[in-house]
Amino acid sequence: MGWSGLWSPGFNPQQTLKGPCGYVHRLSLKRENNQKMSNVKSIDDVIINVARIIIDELMIEDVTPQTFDPEMDLVDEVGIDSMDLATVALVIQDEYGIRIDEDDYPKLTNVRLIAEYINNKL
Questions:
Q1: CA separation for the pair 64, 87 (Å, rounded)
Q2: pLDDT tens digits along 28-62
Q3: How many CA atoms lie within 13 A of 93 on its CB side?
Q4: pTM across the whole model
C-alpha cells in the first residue's frame, strides 16, 4: 500500500503511520505541521518566542520575552556559553522543525539573528 491509502477523511496527522517501507512517520508529519504553522508567524513573533525559549531554558529572571532586547549579545552581555547555546538550539529545532548546523552557532549572537535564521530555514 502506498501513501495514498493512508490519507482518509478522518486522518489525524498526530497519529503514528507506517509508510510503504514500514517506517514510522509520525515525527516527519509533526515537523511538516510545525513548519506550516511557523511560516505564518511574523519576525516579531519569532523574536518573542526565541526570547521566551532563552528565558525559560536558561532560567533568566527579571526579564520577559517582551522586554528582552533582541539586539543584546548573548555571549558578551547575557553570559551564554556554548552548552547553553546548544540547549537553546535543540529546543528551537524541536519548536520550529528545523535543523541548526553547529557551524552556524557562532553567527547566532543575538535573538534577532536567531529569529532571522529561523525564518530563512522555514
A1: 19
A2: 334 444 544 445 479 999 999 999 999 999 999 99
A3: 13
A4: 0.66
Residue type, 83: M
CATH match for 41-121 among 3.30.460.10, 1.10.1200.10, 2.60.40.10, 3.30.1490.20: 1.10.1200.10
Show me where the domains of the chain are located. 3-37, 41-121
Average pLDDT, whole number, for the chain?
A: 78
Nearest C-alpha neighbor of 48 from the set 28, 62, 61, 63: 63
Per-residue pLDDT at 90: 96
Q: For residues 92 and 100, what is the distance between their CA atoms, to the nearest angstrom?
A: 9
Residue 45 corresponds to which amino acid?
Answer: D
